[in-house]
Amino acid sequence: MTVNHPTYRLGPDFNEKLDSFVRKFLDEGFDLFSEEFERVQPFIERARRAGKRDDNDLRQTEKEKYLLELVSFKIYDELNREKFNQCQSTLIVMPDCLSIHEKECEKVEKSYGFFCKRCLPTCRAYEIGDLAKRYGLKIVFSKRKLAEQIEYFSKKMDDLSVIGIACILMLASGMRTAAEVGVPARGVPLNFTGCEHWNDEPFASDFAMESLKAILEEKYGPGN
Q: What is the tally of structural domains in the chain?
């Protein structure tokens, strides 16, 4: 009897193929991104020797997950691209760590998010505000309950799409959360992390502004 399989079928040599693929993926990935990831393993080892902290699990994230989440972000970004471009509204969700003076930041808390007051022109959040203004978009700092935040704005804004700016370990996760509430998301990874999870003395994180501009120009054109 012939069985018609609707999607995939695992053959007898599937495990061997998968093991070989994963080993090759990790080996080639860490070789390709050796400069970008050179400090990850030493940090993990220091975090394991440090005292107990509430964020130990995050700080001790295995380097393999950095690579996995980076690739996941890129795949989700490509899969969401067409649907994202078709949506009418766009919300930019930023991390708190973009603020160059986080403790003195004048952001204002409103329903489901902190909003940038654009108090310092040299702050990256201020620059994002300038870019968003050109396109008539809203920007907001992310909340821990991201699903509730996105659902809130989805009800307030017609046909919503989201651009998330976040670190490697948070970006793909946030895009998955957006998908779960029916909102297509694209993303821009932070170039490095400056927040308190990774630094004794936090400082402003940064990202590639050109990547954000490219996403908006692809969807809306050059802007006003």
A: 2
Residue type, 190: L
Residue 191, C-beta contacts closer than 8 angstroms, at least 6 positions apart? 205, 206, 207, 208
87 belongs to a structural domain: yes
Phi, psi of 86 (to 5 degrees): -85, -15
One domain for residues 107 and 147: yes
- Alpha helix ranges (H) inside the chain: 14-32, 40-49, 56-59, 63-86, 124-135, 146-156, 168-180, 209-220
CATH code assigned at 200: 3.40.50
Residue reference for tokens 């708190």: 96
Tens digits of pLDDT across the chain (224 residues): 567 889 999 999 999 999 999 999 999 999 999 999 999 999 999 999 988 899 999 999 999 999 999 999 999 999 999 999 999 999 999 998 888 666 677 777 777 888 887 788 888 999 999 999 999 999 999 888 899 999 999 999 989 999 999 999 999 999 999 999 999 999 999 999 999 999 988 899 999 999 999 999 999 998 76
